[in-house]
Design goal:
alpha+beta, five-stranded mixed beta sheet, Arc Repressor Mutant, subunit A, about 325 residues, 2 domains, two-stranded antiparallel ribbon
Length: about 325
């Protein structure tokens, strides 16, 4: 059972955008229907609710009905989807060093996933685990392994093949594509989701190595993790508020339930961080309002709804308090 609202780095959701485009579809409606401003994908500090992103994937599944979609994600991966971790990965001296970075920092990208490494005989076994999620299990396992192998080949070269790959799920109609993609024995119905490489391969010195660049990005990630841990409850509340705003019924009670704590405990923990639920709610609304107001595709009525205001007049008064201008006046000056 999870103990907090899970989140994903906004740039990582850019991969979902690419997947939707790859099927000849327009990604924007999918994100807007989930009440996510697409512009936030390019915000290096933004995070989305993992449950919300999973719902977009679930909607996409219904439209395309492609059992091989998880494998397709591997071909669409780019280092920018992982922010600083992606560039530290590329600058790593060996695959082993890169894999250890991934193990340490993967929760920056997606805090529902863990990656562990274990040396067994002449191999390193990489185990990928994920908390229970709303998307199909086959897709989760396929996409995680496909992306990992693409990442490794980006460093090592396309000639890299695992010793073997293991999946907990029982297989799918695209079994032939597994062998074509991974180019190694593939086991289904395994105890764990794992990828196995030879130690010789992962310890090979990489020509793309850049210790200085890797160190710079390591520091960025360490600072990000420190900030994320320090403001963990604040970040969870922000994500929960964003998810609930369109319902128009965001209260400290509904938010405490979303972050799996009591109302009293939530108040205490926020007080310890020097803030309150009302303060965070106002900050989130203001930040989103300033992003949405620049998007001419959104009407002011739509923005008011997305921010959880029951009436346009309430939104207008709040916006004027924040900026000194009404939404209409602000747009004219924009």
């Amino acid at each position: 059972m999870t103990t907090k609202a899970q989140t994903i780095l906004a740039s990582a959701a850019g991969l979902l955008w690419k997947v939707i485009e790859s099927y000849g579809l327009d990604p924007e409606p999918y994100f807007r229907n989930a009440h996510i401003d697409p512009k936030l994908i390019n915000d290096p500090r933004a995070r989305f609710s993992l449950a919300t992103i999973d719902k977009i994937y679930s909607e996409l599944f219904k439209v395309i009905n492609d059992p091989c979609m998880g494998l397709k994600l591997g071909s669409l991966w780019h280092p920018s989807h992982m922010a600083s971790l992606g560039y530290a990965w590329l600058a790593s001296s060996t695959l082993y060093t890169a894999l250890n970075r991934l193990s340490r920092y993967v929760r920056i990208i997606n805090d529902a996933i863990t990656v562990t490494l274990e040396e067994i005989d002449d191999n390193v076994v990489i185990t990928i685990t994920s908390d229970d999620r709303e998307v199909p299990t086959d897709y989760q396992q396929d996409s995680s392994s496909a992306i990992l192998l693409t990442m490794c080949r980006a460093n090592y070269g396309n000639g890299l093949n695992p010793v073997s790959v293991r999946f907990k799920h029982a297989g799918s109609p695209c079994s032939g594509e597994y062998y074509s993609f991974f180019r190694c024995p593939v086991e289904f119905g395994a105890e764990h989701n794992q990828m196995i490489f030879s130690l010789d391969a992962v310890n090979k010195q990489l020509t793309s190595s850049n210790p200085q660049l890797a160190q710079i990005n390591d520091q960025v990630m360490q600072n990000y993790l420190a900030e994320l841990d320090k403001e963990d409850i604040v970040q969870q509340v922000k994500v929960a508020i964003i998810n609930q705003l369109p319902s128009g019924n965001v209260t400290d009670e509904t938010i405490s339930e979303a972050v799996l704590t009591s109302k009293r405990s939530l108040q205490r923990r926020l007080n310890e961080k020097g803030t309150t639920f009302k303060t965070i709610l106002t900050e989130v609304r203001k930040d989103l309002a300033l992003k949405y107001i620049h998007d001419r595709k959104l009407t002011l009525t739509e923005i008011s709804f997305m921010l959880g205001f029951s009436e346009m007049s309430s939104f207008s008064r709040a916006f004027k308090r924040w900026t000194g201008e009404s939404p209409k006046e602000f747009r004219k000056l924009d």
